[in-house]
Amino acid sequence: MTVMEQRGAYRPTPPPAWQPRTDPAPLLPDAEPYRVLGTDAAAQADPELLRRLYAQLVRGRRYNVQATALTKQGRLAVYPSSTGQEACEVAAALALQERDWLFPSYRDTLAAVARGVDPVEALTLLRGDWHTGYDPYEHRVAPLCTPLATQLPHAVGLAHAARLKGDDVVALAMVGDGGTSEGDFHEALNFAAVWQAPVVFLVQNNGFAISVPLAKQTAAPSLAHKAVGYGMPGRLVDGNDAAAVHEVLTDAVRHAREGGGPTLVEAVTYRIEAHTNADDATRYRGDAEVETWREHDPIQLLERELTARGLLDEDAKQSARDAAETMAADLRARMNQDAVLDPMDLFAHVYAEPTPQLREQRDLLRAELEAEHADQEGTHR
Amino acid sequence: MTTVALKPATMAQALTRALRDAMAADPTVHVLGEDVGTLGGVFRVTDGLAAEFGEDRCTDTPLAEAGILGTAVGMAMYGLRPVVEMQFDAFAYPAFEQLISHVARMRNRTRGRMPLPITVRVPYGGGIGGVEHHSDSSEAYYMATPGLHVVTPATVADAYGLLRAAIASDDPVVVLEPKRLYWSKDSWNPEEPQSVEPIGRAVVRRPGRSATLITYGPSVPVCLEAAEAARAEGWDLEVVDLRSLVPFDDETVCASVRRTGRAVVVHESGSFGGPGGEIAARVTERCFHHLEAPVLRVAGFDLPYPPPMLERHHLPGVDRILDAVARLQWEADN
């Protein structure tokens, strides 16, 4: 007999009955990444869509190759290649309607370009002539974001504002596996779920945050599992299967647009190149691993499917390659022109109206430039 | 001509009125933050807004400052004018990355295409007996971030005017609200609240000829008290209330110092790396030949904000200000 029972009288009031707020089962991701290509589901896929995806993948790969070459020529300060991840980039852009918004991270240049951003303007951040070359409102693409995961709450706020205004706009926010460790990832997902904001979060799990592998990044069963903790569905998809990524993202976008709230999608993919040209990937991963992923190349996967089904002949392949080559040649030619910069622009966009302090500094720079100009004139004479 | 009776009002009431008037005038103005809805804010500054404008316009958010400010960025991108409340000065720190990496520079990084009209309200400063993390003076961090405007009212009328101006601004404005002045009363006409002039203008609160006290926010009433006390010493002190830390009103400040020839900068924030250093440097650069003595600083000590039972030793008070003024005289006489 316990002491409490001996004393007899005291019985604590039971707490109010506890109820889970949400049944977690429907939110859980499948055990395996969802696949379409090479499965029975492929027969359901729209042939026209698959051909569009293919052309965009080929173009995206060529863009990655060209931009990487431009870093070697000193035309780009840095380029974080998305080679191997083109299916995620392309599917992200194609899953959206024109009125929707894309919130890319710094590696998602291709998604921005696939949404219509000028290929040169998409590179100004990396080229170093201005932070954002394009007008974010023109194609509804937020500036490429360098701090990790900080663009995710922006996507939530924009989607929330759109819904308050009565617009059926969806925001798609992209982040890498490393970004899921940031506080802003947590806060964005939590806000989105509480507000039932029409947002889709796409995590491109490419295996590494610079050099740190996923196993050192998280102890979660998968990144898609994190969704359950916020009360939103988590979906796991093969990130190299363009048809699968497109289908899952299109579903999530539709779900959000119809008022169903946010979804977290984890696309399992791989970064074939190093983090950037400044990184040495051989220090943290072996060739064998990279080769395994090369075998699972997004372009080859789709090409095999289309060819097997008689949806892609040699002419169609050649025409995709030609279009990509034209884009690359144009990109090369325009990037090889020196940017024309006006130093006075430094002061143009700090505030709507420059402060008196900035006006003084602007006058100082103008005087310096005039003196420099006069010197050059003198030298030339 | 009709005369409207002036009634006593608190600074908190004027701030509430400013939010209400801004929300009524412009449907894109949205208030969001922790406890701003049903509770009306822990200082009751947002009292009644959710009831009047609905929870979509005055929203209780999850408890997450980076999330509050980060979602406000997205809302501003879509054409709203968010006014966010950071419950206490030190609670704003988790939002600093959003503030510095995005809020302050979105206009700049998009070449003017994406301005962010966000108002960040931060109750700040000590003197209310708050426990740790409830009394910081964080103005130096905001001042050091290009792209932000930083204002701080010291009077009931300015609280209304500066908050209205902040909300109307097309650029982000940090409004530092001196907590210990929330309940300070002033005769104010709540029927016809007047806006102050655009952000960036200091004001001479008390004219004088012996020396200028340059101050702002919670230290303004302390300086006015010091100026009254100084009369017994035969000193006639001028008190300049900056109101706006960014942009800084060199013109008003320097005109005053050139008249008096002596200046003391007074603020609660620590002295080292604090606003006073910047202000003293600006005054020295512009008024060196008019100065009879070095520009002195009377500030909080350079330590983490002390526990409430010791804060009176930390906060610049009348005696410490008068001692500094006495030193100015000494410098002048020797």
TrEMBL record, chain A:
Residues annotated as domain Dehydrogenase E1 component: 68-328
Cofactor(s) listed in the protein's UniProt record: thiamine diphosphate
UniProt xrefs under InterPro entries: Alpha-ketoacid_DH_E1_comp, DH_E1, PdhA/BkdA, THDP-binding
Top-level taxonomic group: Bacteria
Spans annotated as Disordered: 1-30
GO terms (BP aspect): branched-chain amino acid catabolic process
Alphabetical UniProt keywords: Oxidoreductase, Pyruvate, Thiamine pyrophosphate
GO molecular function annotations of the record: magnesium ion binding; oxidoreductase activity, acting on the aldehyde or oxo group of donors, disulfide as acceptor
Entries under SUPFAM superfamilies matching the protein: Thiamin diphosphate-binding fold (THDP-binding)
Gene3D superfamilies assigned: 3.40.50.970
Record PANTHER family: 2-OXOISOVALERATE DEHYDROGENASE SUBUNIT ALPHA, MITOCHONDRIAL
Protein name (database record): Pyruvate dehydrogenase (Acetyl-transferring) E1 component subunit alpha
Species in which this protein is naturally found: Streptomyces asoensis
TrEMBL record, chain B:
Organism domain of life: Bacteria
UniProt-recorded Gene Ontology molecular function terms: branched-chain 2-oxo acid dehydrogenase activity; magnesium ion binding
Cofactor: thiamine diphosphate
Keyword list, A-Z: Oxidoreductase
Protein name as it appears in the record: 3-methyl-2-oxobutanoate dehydrogenase (2-methylpropanoyl-transferring)
Matches recorded under Gene3D superfamilies: 3.40.50.920, 3.40.50.970
Pfam families named among the record's database cross-references: Transket_pyr (PF02779), Transketolase_C (PF02780)
Sequence ranges assigned to domain Transketolase-like pyrimidine-binding in this UniProt record: 9-184
Uppermost EC category: oxidoreductase
Gene Ontology biological process terms from the UniProt entry: branched-chain amino acid catabolic process; response to nutrient
EC number in record: 1.2.4.4
InterPro entries named among the record's database cross-references: THDP-binding, Transketo_C/PFOR_II, Transketolase-like_Pyr-bd, Transketolase_C
